[in-house]
Amino acid sequence: MRNVYCCALLTLGAVACSDKEPAVSSLNKEHSIEVTLETKKLNSSSMLLITRENVYVKGNMIKSILKTDTIPALGDSIQSISSGDSETRTAIPKEYEFFVTVK
Questions:
Q1: How far apart are CA 45 and CA 76, in angstroms?
Q2: Least packed by Cβ within 10 Å: which of 3, 6, 11, 54?
Q3: pTM for this one?
Q4: pLDDT tens for residues 8-32?
Q5: Which domain range does residue 74 map to?
């Protein structure tokens, strides 16, 4: 997996996560780089990885970079859900974990 290097500030967001809010509530736009990672299911065997990078200098966004790539889908995991005295088995898509290195 590719490492993402940023100079200043990093914000991650992933569609597959239950918490869809950015990790940072406010962004210092004097000199920062905002990075958002997102995955979308294309089909049963492929996912789309979307990387957005916004570069801010002196309060203005000077550049926005969008990169997309396809990655293999991880398949489904079978989980049992109990409700009262009945139990239902359902397939839940496996999710990627994001690890980011900042230098």
A1: 11
A2: 3
A3: 0.66
A4: 333 333 333 445 666 777 888 899 9
A5: 1-103
